[in-house]
Amino acid sequence: MIYIVAAIVSIIVAGLTFFSGFGLGTLLMPLFALFFPVQVAVAATAVVHLANNLFKVAIVGRFADSRIVLLFGIPAALAAFSGAWLLGRLSVMPEIASYTFLGRETVIEPVKLAIGVLMVIFAVFELSPALDRFSVSPRWIPLGGVLSGFFGGLSGHQGALRTIFLTRAGLSKEQFVGTIAVVATLVDIVRISVYGLTFFTRHFDVIGGSGWMLVGVASVSAWVGSFGGSRMLKKITMRGVRIIVGTLLLLLGIGLGSGVV
Question: Which of 6, 80, 224, 234 has minimal CB crowding within 10 Å?
């Protein structure tokens, strides 16, 4: 059943978010977090995200604006290293507290608390109608790259920030999609490398064959969704999808932060 859910989520969200550049990782990470340790869920989602972005680069990468890639993508990739490193550090820190909830021992861990808080914050972003109209002056593009890359490395939540800072960059629709695909690929390569050197390889036994199959199903399904999205003639509204994503993020963020999940 989980494979079917992952496939459906990946196809629909990858297709709908092809033009906006965010949503796939945001929705897949909470799904993976229900089955893996949260830091492994972030890393597993990054693998799917990278596979999908490489596919998007092959389709629209030629439209990428090299100037924006340099101004936004390079700071993002460098900052992703710091965010991924911090996630690795949090994953080995001792528990903060424990308590009994509904008859079972519940533990609050630093990594779950940090990711949970970030999920709640980004859930507010997703649920706020103001996000549809909010953008930042182009002079802040490098800062946007740093923020997007850092949070991408730490929790995987980077797409909404990319969109906010690049909306007013003067890019055509094709340039916007191509630039985001290239930038996201750079960030994914950096953060996956750091995950692999820190905690990811220690959890191969946790992931198991079924876990890797789940990652594979999600990756292939995301390719199908992205290909479908590339055939669409106009941008699809994301408001309904963002409400679902934001609600899921909010609930799971509270669950992770409190140690219930």
Answer: 234
